[in-house]
Amino acid sequence: MTHQAALANKEEKIDELINALESATILTKADKAQHLMGQIDLATESTDGVELVYQKIGKMTKAGIFKKSPWEDASKLVSGLVNGTLKSGHPNSTMELLSELRLMAIAKGKITLNEVSKEEARDFIQEVIVSNLEFVFQEPLEETRLAMNNHELNKVHSLFVFLLKIPV
User: How many Cβ atoms sit within 10 Å of the Cβ of residue 49?
Assistant: First the structure.
């Protein structure tokens, strides 16, 4: 299967899971969100996958991917905690990745949230980039290499490559 075909397959699966999350009842929403998170975890090991997820972040946010999580209220996020959360592995690292993509989408005017302005989102993303130079330059510290598996490192590196591609 070619890279493009694999990406199209991932997109189709993610779309199905977003639709399932949107139509989920209160009793099934957590399970649907967990399934979507698993697919996002797999898709975001490449920059193309991160970009694919970024294109869908508005729909995921509306569907409730952040509901009842520490990431629900974007105004309460702390940039200094991002590094540790990214190192903690899935599902936390995947939620953190989604949170950065949501803030990037806010900074770019792609989506709006009442609790965070474009400027606040831009400042947050810039703080995250400056605080995570080991990921920006793909030079993880020894502690990071020991704590993270290759999949998680690839996912986080792909996130930062993507964040740096889009001027804020």
Answer: 24
Kindly report, residue by residue over 43-95, the tens digit of the pLDDT. 999 999 999 999 999 999 999 999 999 999 999 999 999 999 999 999 999 99
CA distances from 108 to 3, 54, 82, 118, 122 (A): 28, 12, 20, 7, 8
Q: For residue 9, what is the enclosing H or E element? A: helix 3-23
User: Which has the closest alpha carbon to 154: 138, 142, 134?
Assistant: 138
Q: Rounded to the nearest 5°, which phi and psi values hold at 30?
A: -65, -40
Residues 6+ apart with CB under 8 A from 44: 50, 53, 94, 97, 155, 158, 159
Whole-prediction pTM: 0.96
- Contact indicator for 29, 21 with CB cutoff of 8 Å: yes
Q: What are the backbone angles phi and psi of residue 112, rounded to the nearest 5°?
A: -130, 145
CA 6 to chain centre: 20
For helices 150-165 and 118-131, the axis angle rounded to 10 degrees is: 130
